[in-house]
Amino acid sequence: IYIALNKPAGVVSTVSDDKKRVTVTDLVKLNQKIYPVGRLDYDTTGLILMTNDGELADELMHPRNKVEKTYLVKLSKPLEEKHRHLLEKGIVLDKKRTLPATIRFANRHDFKKLYITISEGRNRQVKKMFERFGYFVDKLHRTEVGPIKLGRLETGKWRHLTPEEVTRLKK
Q1: What is the pTM of this model?
Q2: I need a labelling partner for 84 at 20 to 30 A (CA). Which of 9, 90, 129, 131 fits?
């Protein structure tokens, strides 16, 4: 089973939660066990993949495979070009250099709203990258994981991946 879910804020990316919060598996009602592939923070929205294919999940999450993830970010203030350049080269976070990121602005007249693509998934990485230079992330929304795009899937809704999407993911 291969699922794309548009995770709302206030939902945890786990199978169960000891604090009784809503989980991603609560949103996808199936008669078979499925698991989230990776995580999104509690307040982060957007695309999360879910599957019962443990081998594929492991491949997608393993750092050596450098699966790209793209996020729409809304910053507290416009991103300065010097900071964009540094983030695209890679910066030191928690004593370890990040891999280079790709940044493109959502609108050429608005430097607060941008897309960032990273190929690693450290804890709160995108937020920490911007915080390093004094920016606060007002909104973080994942739009893509590898070749899978969220598209127009409504918040809280899910869909099965197409056979073509599954094939592309496995590559």
Answers
A1: 0.96
A2: 9
